Amino acid sequence: MSKMINCKTCGKEIAKSATTCPSCGAKNSKPFYKKWWFILIVIIVLLGAIGSNASKKNDNSKDTASSSNATTTDTSKNTSESNDSQDKAKDTKKDTKDTVPKEYQSALKKADLYANKMNLSKKSLYVQLTSDYGEKFPKEAAQYAVDNVKADWKKNALAKAKSYQNQMNMSKSAIHDQLVSDAGEKFTEEEAQYAINNLEK
Description:
The protein is mainly α. Among the domains are: 100-150, Arc Repressor Mutant, subunit A (Orthogonal Bundle); 152-201, Arc Repressor Mutant, subunit A. The chain is built from 7 helices and 2 strands. Strands 1-2 form a two-stranded antiparallel sheet. A hairpin with a 6-residue loop joins strand 1 (4-6) and strand 2 (13-15). The longest helix has 64 residues, at 36-99. The N and C termini lie far apart (128 Å).
């Protein structure tokens, strides 16, 4: 192995171990990137970078797994809450039916028949349900039925008004009086007026 090298400044041959060039006086030293301490720093930096990337990948996979778990948990929770609310709604419906006395339920069925098939007013319906000549329900049961029956009272008033107009040829004024009379249909003033306003001219 040669012990001689060329001077980096002037190019003359000098001993490898010489600290300066005899010809030009330039220092004979290794470039910094070939020195052991520089190489060590580069190795440490590279190892650090590799370790950091590996750590980021682990964190990302943990975050993804955590996010996935959170989503699954939320979905399960929402499904569970939805099922609970549906069960509660069913239970409430069941409880309501179970807690309503049978007689009240019967009164409600009769009320539906009178209100929607015979077009009675709310007041006439109550009288029919409680009358000794009618259904003879207790007042509480009749009131429950009247309060809970699904009926369009204005529509009922109009149906009765049409019946008076077509079958009995009554005037609008007479029909109005018949609709609101306590001896007649017992509709409210508003319901009777709606009926009169919507009769054929």
